[in-house]
Design goal:
- Strand 5 and strand 6 (77-79) form a beta hairpin.
- 31% of the residues are buried.
- The protein contains eight helices and six strands.
- It is mostly helical.
- The termini are far apart.
- The protein has a two-stranded antiparallel sheet. The protein has a two-stranded antiparallel ribbon with strand order 3-4. The protein has a two-stranded antiparallel sheet with strand order 5-6.
- It is 50% helix and 7% strand.
Amino acid sequence: SARVHVVGHLILALLLTSWGRTLSARCRPVPADWQQRVHRTEWVVGQKSGAPIPPRAYETRGEVVLGHDHNCRWLGVPIGLHNRKYFVLTLFYGGLMTTFAGVLSASDLASLEPSASSGDVSATHVVALFLSPVQSLLALSKIGGLPVAFLLVILDVALAGFLFLMFSWHLTYVLNNVTSLDRTDRWDVGKIANLSQCFGRSPAGWWLPTDGVTVDGVSWPTRKSGVPSDKERHED
């Protein structure tokens, strides 16, 4: 139907935009006066050059990546403050896209069952085929053979599970303001404040692949810097 096409193309557009921006976003430049803005005790020694670099930064591929999280081998780019939001959204919309495709494949599989000739194909049955391997195998036994729709359901379920698992993992890192290399709670200023640093202050923009960074990547708020926590903001 037209509605299914619109929803599918919208998810695909958000996925491709997030993925493209993850790859194309440029690392944020290190401010020339960063050493005057950051206490010497927070400076980090560059892994490659041995020169001081800002806290939470990392040297890789000849660049200093502010707010570095990890080097993604799947995409071939470093993930940092400049593209972390896009990376997390790529995982989310990738999982959503494969779920959407899997449900459509499950619908195709249901239409091949003998009972489908009488119009007995419900949305509940389609979802069951997508979520339950047992239901899919039962449908397969009724159909006979090995239809492509069945293989697509299995593939989409596996990909969706993997992508949503990765999304949950990296979103938890963002909410706790930690990275793959630094899992201390020093930078944790509350889940909403942590999320806002990377995704922006407006919840409406959290779902869009647009720039929402609210920190400079040099002067990071900490628990001891006087930044109010989420609870303190609510009480005020």
